[in-house]
């Protein structure tokens, strides 16, 4: 990977423009304001925006810019070539125990999880983790499952800053040593579990998906269940279904076979 000094300045600034517009939440950003936030000359940023606009990566909106539709096409092309994503959707549809539930496929990115795929299910539970969403790894079941692959010292280093351990509910674990202990429990249990840490009344469960190739990033496969109807027996059945789905996703050749987790 190229170091900071080896990057082409114009390309680097274009990427920073896209990242800034991503963080704007859909609110149009003017060239002057973006130049100020990025600490670059307005004239230079104006030319970059014209190029990005010509290629459909950003679009004019009022007196500013927002992300363009071309990014959707590029993102879709990436997802179509990412075998675990396609395998995830097929496994969700073919697993009766979970195909009505909310399911997610995520990867670890620093102290957050990035959701690559999401299955809405049919249960009366609103799905908030859509494709491209980022959630704190410290409180999510998928995040905890992926953090269990790291050792305690790496977790302490990565989550040293308290801002990386937000408290979304009164059940969220925000203490660093509490997080380390929680991840130790995940290793012993064999799957990630959050009970009301992200949303009150919701129990999250997650397992890791073994990488298909050496050096490939690990994935986590999770589901969100309503706490009021999720006892220990249902939890274990859901975890077994997730584990069977994870095996099928890790080896796409298994997708044609009868998988576990079927009733």
UniProtKB/TrEMBL annotation:
Q: Which UniProt keywords apply?
A: DNA-binding, Transcription, Transcription regulation
Q: Cite the Pfam families for this sequence.
A: HTH_IclR, IclR_C
DNA-binding as a keyword of this entry, yes or no, is yes
Q: Which ranges carry the HTH iclR-type domain?
A: 8-69
IclR-ED domain sequence ranges: 70-255
* Taxonomic superkingdom: Bacteria
Sorted alphabetically, which InterPro entries does this protein's record hold? Answer: GAF-like_dom_sf, HTH_MetabolicPath_Reg, Tscrpt_reg_IclR_C, Tscrpt_reg_IclR_N, WH-like_DNA-bd_sf, WH_DNA-bd_sf
Q: Which SMART domains match?
A: HTH_ICLR
Protein name (record): HTH-type transcriptional repressor AllR
């Amino acid at each position: 990977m190229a170091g900071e000094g080896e990057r082409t300045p114009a390309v680097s600034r274009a990427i920073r423009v896209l990242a800034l517009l991503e963080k704007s939440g859909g609110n149009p950003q003017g060239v002057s304001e973006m130049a100020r936030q990025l600490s670059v000359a307005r004239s230079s940023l104006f030319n970059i925006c014209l190029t990005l606009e010509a290629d459909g990566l950003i679009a004019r909106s009022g007196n500013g810019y927002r992300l363009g539709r071309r990014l959707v096409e590029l993102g879709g092309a990436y997802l179509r070539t990412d075998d675990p994503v396609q395998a995830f959707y097929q496994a969700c549809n073919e697993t009766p125990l979970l195909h009505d539930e909310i399911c997610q496929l995520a990867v670890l990115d620093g102290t957050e999880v990035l959701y690559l795929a999401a299955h809405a299910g049919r249960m009366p539970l609103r799905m908030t983790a859509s494709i491209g969403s980022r959630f704190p790894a410290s409180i999510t079941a998928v995040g905890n499952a992926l953090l269990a692959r790291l050792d305690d010292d790496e977790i302490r280093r990565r989550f040293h800053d308290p801002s990386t351990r937000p408290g979304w509910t009164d059940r969220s674990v925000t203490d660093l040593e509490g997080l380390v202990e929680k991840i130790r429990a995940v290793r012993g249990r064999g799957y990630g579990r959050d009970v009301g840490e992200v949303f009150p009344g919701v129990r999250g469960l997650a397992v890791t998906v073994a990488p298909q190739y050496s050096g490939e990033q690990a994935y986590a496969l999770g589901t969100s269940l309503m706490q009021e109807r999720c006892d220990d027996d249902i939890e274990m059945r859901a975890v077994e279904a997730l584990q069977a789905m994870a095996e099928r996703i890790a080896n796409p050749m298994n997708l044609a076979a009868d998988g576990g987790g079927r009733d």
